[in-house]
Amino acid sequence: MQQSGNIVRKCVNCGNDVSCHASNVVASADIQKVLESVESIPSLIIPNLYLDGFISAMNIPFLKEKNIKHIVNTAWGLETQFPKYGQLKQTQYESNGITCVCLDWVDSEEQEVDMEVLLEVVGGIQRSLLAGEAVLVHCAQVHSVYHTAACCYVLLFCSRIVFCLWPSSLS
């Protein structure tokens, strides 16, 4: 793999993003380089749905380029811990037509996820995507809890599984 710049994600053998390869053919060290090198560029999960840490939510040129208009911040206390994020959110999001939902989840196994709140968030993601806008779901440090919102969306709207409990008001 390349050692620096945005091309660090590219495989030197085929030129594709390393995420296109099976995990058994990409070395852990190469994966770590990718994660450390471009934290301001979120990962594309499905068309127009991005997932990453809060640094990517501060990349206003990227948010504009990808038409990201809805951001889900799952991290508890992010604006207090990282004042630059809070300042940027206040000054740049509204002027760029970006809405932000803050869930204040703690990245811990003990974090309880309220199903009503989760379904509201997933409904917001769906409405944004149906409107042709992109969505970014992020946390503070790219750990585990923030995946919940994005995974729930993918399971509900991108699979053939029928959920009888899905409120019709969120469709």
Description:
- The protein has 171 residues and is α/β, with parallel strands linked by helices.
- 34% of the residues lie in helices and 18% in strands.
- It has six helices and five strands.
- It has helices at residues 28-37, 60-65, 78-81, 83-93, 115-130, 147-157, and strands spanning 43-46, 49-53, 68-75, 99-105, 134-139.
- It has a five-stranded mixed β-sheet.
- Strand 1 and strand 2 (49-53) form a beta hairpin.
- Helix 5 (115-130) crosses helix 6 (147-157).
- The N and C termini lie far apart (43 Å).
- Mean pLDDT is 77; it is low at 1-7 and 160-171.
Write the layout of secondary structure elements.
Elements: H1 28-37, E1 43-46, E2 49-53, H2 60-65, E3 68-75, H3 78-81, H4 83-93, E4 99-105, H5 115-130, E5 134-139, H6 147-157
Parallel strand pairs: 2-5, 3-4, 3-5
Antiparallel strand pairs: 1-2
Helix pairs in contact: 5-6
Write a concise keyword list for the protein shown above.
single chain, 171 residues, alpha/beta, five-stranded mixed β-sheet, globular, disordered C terminus
